[in-house]
Amino acid sequence: MFRSAIFLGIAVLAVSLSTAMGQSVMRIENEDLGLISRTGVEAIGSLICDAGEAEYTVTEEEIFKLIFVNPTSGRGAWVETVTVGANSAPDCQALRLIKKYVKATKFEDCGFTSWYDNVTNVLTYSNEAKVVVRLPSPSSNIIRRKTFLVPLNCVGAGSAVVSVPTKWFEQFFQTGPLFEEFGVSVSVKIRKEHRAEAFGELDVFVNVLTVELDRPYDETYEIIGHRVFTTPTLNQTSTPSTEFISSRGCNPYPDFVTVTKVRNDKFIYEILDFGIEDSDDYYFHVEVNLCAKGIPGSRVHCVETCVGSRMLRVNDAPNKAVATSGSLSAMGVPRLIIGSNGVPALTSRK
């Protein structure tokens, strides 16, 4: 019923770094002829290197700044592709979200090369992201492109390894009278990590789920209500349904769930990998409620996350948004099982 996975129990890179500063983006003037010139612009975007995975993010504004002095003057231009690895492999193409592109990949994929420094005992993984922009053209018979190669470098070492690379939920908006006309966008992503030990269990997999407000909304809004639940189908009302985090951000299962508040606009949830008795697959759903800073009348909705007393009623903002993951399944033999009643139980502690 549960899918197994073969993995190497060898520690790989796990350090958070940004793209290497001081290195310039390469501009390919004519890709077919292989003509390359150096622009003298520092690497754009951001790079997170963690647990054997590289996660690259770049915004449309950052890309257009490579071409136009004023990015808003790039009307008619659009980003064709952003790919990790210069060979443009389809599996390595970035996902387009709202005004940004994201891609996560294991170091053994998408063209990363490694180099070990015997003096410093530091392992470095290097690659580049390929950004292709289509420019306006006076004729449909003329295609104008600019291609840029962005250096990506990850340095360090660690103990966890990503088993399933980061996947993004469908991006969604929070709307309502206290929010901007087009809504406030929220990004949700999830990956599976293998760990030697977690939650008192040995040799296990963990779901790492991150909820974060997109820029620039993180400056004017806070995440105040956050709920995480799972179902065996895409339908949010299907059963058995398990609420790992309640609607006010409370954690009813500290034995196999942790909540980390990175900032008021970013939360990370770690949930021991699990299986459902009568289903091979499951879906995560994340419900988010936001608090608008500095808007008259909005602070009544800004009660701090988890409310300990059930007798205390909280006046939530009326509009909530929910994001849903793609289909997921247990890795190996899960230590946590959800029964038909929706209650999760550790098999080692029954």
Task: Describe the 3D structure.
With 350 residues, the protein is mostly beta strands. Helix content is 2%, strand content 48%. It contains one helix and 24 strands. Residues 1-22, 32-38, 177-182 and 308-315 have low confidence and may be disordered.
Features of the shown structure:
350 residues, mainly beta, 6-stranded antiparallel β-sheet, 1 helix, 24 strands, 2% helix, 48% strand, globular, disordered N terminus
Fraction of residues in β-strands: over 45%
* Average predicted confidence as pLDDT: 76
Element pattern in H and E:
EEEEHEEEEEEEEEEEEEEEEEEEE
Low-confidence stretches: 1-22, 32-38, 177-182, 308-315
Rg calc: 22 Å
Which helices and strands, and how do they pair?
Blueprint: E1 24-30, E2 35-42, E3 46-50, E4 53-59, H1 60-65, E5 78-84, E6 95-96, E7 100-106, E8 113-117, E9 122-135, E10 144-155, E11 161-168, E12 172-174, E13 184-198, E14 201-213, E15 221-231, E16 242-245, E17 257-263, E18 266-272, E19 274-276, E20 281-292, E21 321-324, E22 328-329, E23 336-338, E24 344-346
Parallel strand pairs: 19-23
Antiparallel strand pairs: 1-2, 1-10, 3-4, 4-7, 5-9, 6-7, 8-9, 9-10, 11-13, 12-13, 13-14, 14-18, 15-16, 15-20, 17-18, 20-21, 20-22, 23-24
